[in-house]
């Protein structure tokens, strides 16, 4: 086997599953199926690339607890290099000084709590726009997949460039302060391009940011921040429509909260979200069953290490099968059932990557830095979709007939668009 796999010397004893053409269509679907047949640690050759697939919480725990550094590389991928301006993107850049510094800049300047908070009004206004376009549908089905993707693109475009995606630039950016729903004032904030250009001129920065680096960071925000958030909204709506009792409970929670406000036509705002524990549990459960990045972002070992007695050489490509881990009956009771209640009185924060039973945002040094950027928009949008509309499947489709197939891609989307009929509700 060692000869056949042409591996560097090492005590490889893992089951060899086959070459790419024998394995069939990749990525996650076949890897998931293979994991259920071949166990929690599996070795493949993707072309000539030695590849490890980790599909159990126990092994993932050992990796992130004891060998995080060894597993914190990213493979050099041609497509990622082209998309990420020659290795300037954070997500696809190999482990090293550039990655450390650019990630630090992103955490401190782009994704800090203060910066994310400063764009609260953009998120609210874009959710409002979404609700308006849905209300215009006049009782015909709306394509929620398309609408949520436009929403996330508009939000990210406005935050990054100060202008909407494919639409007129917003009034928000034309006025320093604008009245919002007659009850709150917004502050004009620097968009991210300006933040990054300011840092470029700052001689105190540890790396000299060039234009390629700035484009790489912006690419990260688009690639990582638009698709993933809209996929989360769609999987959540899909599970709710398939589980009417959960839909009813989540909707009731949102509407009761808004009725307490005793104002007409109000929206759920970000400050209300902490009072929606059931909705938050619904989103968590959707992220468990449908993690938008089911194999995380590919990793590569940067030094040799030993996992469960198997020698893993440096330069091995690694897929952490987060989807298989989150569906493992050893970690979750009735893992295939959509049960938001399992999170209701559970204080564990599953988004920080410290509880390996569920890893929607990855873990360790390369874990997702965008959780706090994504979640307010996801929760705000869903809360308002449930507040303003009752949702039904188009005529003739029963809730057990809804297509739940996953498309193949970096982000796991629903294969066919989610089309639902909105019925406006006036509280
Ligand atoms: C629901 C939304 C999101 C999900 C499910 C998600 C998930 C992930 C996952 C699984 C990874 C790989 C982690 C690993 O290898 O351990 C990742 C990496 C990353 N994410 Fe997210 N993400 C989301 C939103 C965002 C947003 C909004 C941003 C930025 C605005 C973002 C920026 C990044 C970056 C820069 C990385 C690469 C980190 C590194 O390699 O150091 N993500 N994300």
Automatic annotation (TrEMBL):
Keywords: Heme, Iron, Metal-binding, Monooxygenase, Oxidoreductase, Signal. This is Cytochrome P450. Its cofactor is heme. PANTHER family: CYTOCHROME P450 71A9-LIKE ISOFORM X1, CYTOCHROME P450 FAMILY 71 PROTEIN. It holds the Pfam family p450. It comes from Stylosanthes scabra. Belongs to the cytochrome P450 family. The keyword Iron applies. The keyword Electron transport does not apply. InterPro entries: Cyt_P450, Cyt_P450_CS, Cyt_P450_E_grp-I, Cyt_P450_sf. Gene3D superfamilies: Cytochrome P450.
């Amino acid at each position: 086997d060692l000869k056949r796999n042409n591996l560097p010397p090492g005590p490889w004893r893992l089951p060899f599953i086959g070459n790419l053409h024998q394995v069939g269509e990749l990525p996650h679907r076949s890897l998931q199926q293979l994991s259920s047949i071949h166990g929690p640690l599996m070795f493949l050759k993707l072309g000539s690339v030695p590849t490890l697939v980790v599909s159990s919480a126990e092994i993932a725990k050992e990796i992130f607890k004891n060998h995080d550094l060894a597993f914190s590389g990213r493979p050099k991928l041609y497509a990622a290099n082209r998309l990420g301006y020659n290795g300037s993107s954070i997500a696809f850049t190999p482990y090293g000084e550039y990655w450390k510094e650019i990630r630090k800049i992103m955490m401190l300047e782009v994704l800090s709590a203060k910066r994310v908070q400063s764009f609260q009004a953009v998120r609210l206004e874009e959710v409002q726009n979404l609700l308006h376009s849905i209300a215009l549908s006049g009782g015909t089905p709306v394509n929620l997949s398309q609408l949520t993707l436009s929403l996330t693109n508009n939000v990210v475009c406005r935050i990054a460039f100060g202008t909407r995606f494919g639409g007129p630039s917003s009034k928000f950016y034309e006025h320093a302060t604008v009245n919002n729903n007659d009850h709150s004032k917004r502050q004009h904030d620097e968009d991210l391009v300006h933040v990054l250009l300011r840092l470029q001129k700052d001689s105190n920065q540890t790396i000299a940011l060039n234009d390629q680096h700035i484009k790489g960071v912006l690419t990260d925000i688009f690639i990582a921040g638009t698709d993933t958030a809209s996929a989360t909204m769609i999987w959540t709506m899909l599970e709710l429509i398939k589980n009417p009792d959960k839909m009813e409970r989540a909707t009731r929670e949102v509407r009761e909260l808004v009725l307490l406000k005793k104002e007409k036509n109000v929206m759920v705002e970000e400050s209300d979200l902490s009072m929606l524990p059931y909705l938050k549990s619904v989103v968590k459960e959707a992220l468990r069953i449908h993690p938008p990045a089911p194999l995380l972002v590919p990793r590569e070992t940067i030094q040799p290490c030993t996992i469960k007695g198997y020698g893993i050489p440096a330069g091995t490509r690694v897929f952490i099968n987060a989807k298989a881990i989150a569906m493992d009956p050893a970690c979750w009771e009735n893992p295939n059932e959509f049960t938001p209640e399992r999170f209701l009185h559970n204080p564990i924060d599953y988004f920080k990557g410290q509880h390996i039973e569920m890893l929607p945002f990855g873990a360790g040094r390369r874990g997702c830095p965008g959780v706090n950027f994504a979640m307010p928009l996801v929760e705000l949008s869903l809360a308002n979709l449930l507040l303003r509309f009752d949702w039904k499947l188009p005529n003739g489709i029963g809730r057990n007939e809804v297509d739940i197939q996953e498309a193949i891609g970096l982000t796991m989307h629903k294969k066919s668009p989610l089309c639902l009929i909105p019925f406006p509700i006036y509280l």
